Structures are given as C-alpha cells and as structure tokens.
C-alpha cells in the first residue's frame, strides 16, 4: 500500500502505455488494483475483480452509448429479460448444426486466401490473411455474393476503426457511420429476400428464429450484423494475428503445432489469454460497492482491464510467458462461459460468437502451416502491437515456402 500512497497510478492514455501496456498492467495489479481516473472512470485490473464485474448482477452493461450509432441498441448493452430474449433468438445460429455447416465456408475461404498469399512478392499474414478471413467467413455464412467482398472489406475497416476511435477523430467517426448507412441499405434488401424465401444461411436463420412467439425485427437483425462485422470480425482478426506472432516468436511451439494440428486451438486459446484482442470491457456499477478495499459509488463507469486480468499471477503460473501447453488452458472450456481467460467476457454476456472464432482458428491456423512448410519473419522484420481498446500486430511480414 505504500506504493499507492507515494506514487501516482499509471496513465492508460500515456505514450508508454500505447507502446507496451503489459508492464503497466503488472504495476496496476500489484500496487493500484483499483483507482479512479477522472477522464475515464474506475479502473480495475485483478482477475477476481474483473470477473466479478463481468458476472455479478450489481454491474450493468449499459455503457456502450458511444458505439450505439454504429451498432444500435445491441446485445452488448442489454440486461435482464431483454438480453435473454435477444440472446436466445441469436445464439442458435452459432452452435449445433448451423455452426457445423460453417466449416465448409471457413475451409473454402482459407484455401482461396492462401492461394492468393502464395503469389505475393511481400506476403503479410495480417494484411493478406488474418484481416480477410473473418470477413470472407461472415459473408459466406450470410450467403452474400463473392463480388461484394471488396465493398464489405471497406465497410468492415471503417466500422472497426470507429469502435477503436477513442481519440474521437471526426473523420473516422463519419466514415464509420457512412459505412453503417451503406451496410444497412445493402442488408435490408437481403433481409426482404430471405424473409420471402429463407435459405440455410445466418440471415435466414435470424429471420425465421422464434421463441415463445418472439421474433427479431429487421432493425435488430441489421444491428446484429453491424456488431458481427465491427466487433466479431476484428476480434477474430486480432486473435489470429497474435497467435501467428506468438508461434513465430516460439519456433519450438510452432513445430509442435505442425506435428499435431489439434494443438492449434491450444495456441489460439493461449494467445487470447496472453494477448487478448479486446483489452478493455466497460461496465456500470448499479450500487455502491467495495472493490479491493475501496468504496466505489453507484453509477460509476468501470474500466475492466482484460489485458491485465489475463496475466494475473494468482490465476496463471509464469503468466507473462506464451505456453500453449500450460495446464490452466483447457480447450474444452476456453471457448465457453467456463473459460479461465476473460477474452470472450464472462457470465451471461459471454461472447455469442466465441464458437465461430474457435472454428475459424481450428481450420485457419493448420491451413497456413500445411500450405507453407517454411514460415518465418522476413529478414529484419520486428512485429509491433498497436491499439488501446483492441490490440494486436498490424503487420506480420513473412518468408514463405509453399508445399509442392
């Protein structure tokens, strides 16, 4: 506690944090597990406190007004019965038979991208694969025309940049909202068609979903598709990018995954823990509550530091190290609400698309390693993580040797 008295808490908006947040996270867990930043709110960093905030009924998710113009009143900020109704209508599209049918879509998208990657003079795993695979998969499970890939990629990047626009750049904000308007117009025509003649795709599934006579409105479907594109696409992109970065940084573990492709999911889950795609989740405290010895008032905005909680030494042995074999990671629970890491959230708001991300990793990671027996960084290249709310390497320039 002396450190808390004699030193100022770290600054999440500092250049030092932007360069490398992980030493700062460690300081916060040890010396400032909770503190108030007048610009942001109350910041918590220990795994126990973060998990409590994500699961306890004293905390509300109604804190995402900043992105409401982009994704509407989404499942992100719904509580109680409203959240339960919406989730029950949406979640069947991401499990069971629908999820199993997405495997063919993922395989086809991965193979097409790898064909293109093999022809690149300066291949970049992020630019040419990780950033493209989730969008092609989303379009595939929506059964949308291939010729619209480029347009969707523009909309995706604008939406993802909008979500991460914590500096409130007006040009970034306008580009995101323009993308939302264009996407809504495009998808409304698709919804009209699927309501008239449903298929076996994601949009048809949402159009026809019924539970106790409850259905999804066109507006709810449009907003969920925007959320899936902006949040689901980016988190999978960044999770894949960090996984390839960690494997390239640890050639011995890369060899392990080559020898046993089933280890791809362990590598993905461990990367989600060590380098989560989303570093911060927001909650609003509904009642006055003591957190790590500090009384926090009702109405407080809570910054839940996923990036810090996932490296909590009380939860993970040698927590700063990438180890796909660590015992604390169980692939049977790493993609559901029993997960030891918090990268998909926790409790009732556990990410509805987690199993889709799992499927993309299970297929997409081994596909790269099969296609390229030699995979290493390009000479002189050093990967750099970027981002505050979401974070991952923006580039992975590599040398490839395609399989004959």
UniProtKB/TrEMBL annotation:
Which keywords does this chain's UniProt record carry?
Antibiotic biosynthesis, Heme, Iron, Metal-binding, Monooxygenase, NADP, Oxidoreductase
Q: In which pathway does it act?
A: Antibiotic biosynthesis; mycinamicin biosynthesis
Q: Which Gene3D superfamilies match?
A: Cytochrome P450
Identify a single GO molecular function assigned to this protein: monooxygenase activity
One matching Pfam family is p450
Claim: Magnesium is one of the keywords in the record: no
Write the signal peptide boundaries.
Answer: none
SUPFAM superfamilies registered for this protein in UniProt = Cytochrome P450
An example GO BP is: antibiotic biosynthetic process
The superkingdom of the source organism is Bacteria
Q: Which family, according to UniProt?
A: Belongs to the cytochrome P450 family.
The molecule here is called: Cytochrome P450
Q: Write down the species.
A: Micromonospora wenchangensis
> What lineage does UniProt assign to this protein's organism?
Bacteria, Bacillati, Actinomycetota, Actinomycetes, Micromonosporales
């Amino acid at each position: 506690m002396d450190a808390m008295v004699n030193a100022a808490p770290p600054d999440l908006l500092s250049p030092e944090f932007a360069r490398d947040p992980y030493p700062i996270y460690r300081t916060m867990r040890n010396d400032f597990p909770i503190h108030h930043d007048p610009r942001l709110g109350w910041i918590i960093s220990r795994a126990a406190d973060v998990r409590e905030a994500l699961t306890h009924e004293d905390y509300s998710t109604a804190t995402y007004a900043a992105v409401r113009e982009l994704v509407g009143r989404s499942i992100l900020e719904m509580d109680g019965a409203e959240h339960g109704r919406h989730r029950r209508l949406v979640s069947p599209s991401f499990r069971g038979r629908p999820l199993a049918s997405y495997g063919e879509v993922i395989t086809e998208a991965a193979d097409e991208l790898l064909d293109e990657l093999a022809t690149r003079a300066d291949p970049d795993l992020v630019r040419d694969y990780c950033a493209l695979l989730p969008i092609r998969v989303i379009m595939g499970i929506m059964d949308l025309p291939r010729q619209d890939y480029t347009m969707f990629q523009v909309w995706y990047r604008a939406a993802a940049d909008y979500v991460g626009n914590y500096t409130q750049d007006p040009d970034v904000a306008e580009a995101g909202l323009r993308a939302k308007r264009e996407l809504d117009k495009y998808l409304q025509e698709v919804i009209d068609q699927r309501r008239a003649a449903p298929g076996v795709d994601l949009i048809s599934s949402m159009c026809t979903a019924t539970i106790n006579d409850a259905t999804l409105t066109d507006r709810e479907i449009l907003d969920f598709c925007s959320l899936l594109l902006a949040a689901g696409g980016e988190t999978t992109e960044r999770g894949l990018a960090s996984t390839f970065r960690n494997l390239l940084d640890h050639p011995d573990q890369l060899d392990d995954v080559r020898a046993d492709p089933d280890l791809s999911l362990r590598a993905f889950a461990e990367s989600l823990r060590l380098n989560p795609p989303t570093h911060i989740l927001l909650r609003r405290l509904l009642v006055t509550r003591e957190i790590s010895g500090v009384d926090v008032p009702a109405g407080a905005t809570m910054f839940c530091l996923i990036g810090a909680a996932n490296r909590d030494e009380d939860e993970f042995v040698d927590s700063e190290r990438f180890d796909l074999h660590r015992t604390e990671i169980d692939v049977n629970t790493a993609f559901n609400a029993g997960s030891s890491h918090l990268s998909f959230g926790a409790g009732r708001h556990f990410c509805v698309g987690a199993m889709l991300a799992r499927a993309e990793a299970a297929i997409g990671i081994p596909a790269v390693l099969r296609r390229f027996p030699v995979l290493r960084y390009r000479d002189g290249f050093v990967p750099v993580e970027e981002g505050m709310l979401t974070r991952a390497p923006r580039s992975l320039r590599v040398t490839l040797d395609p399989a004959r």
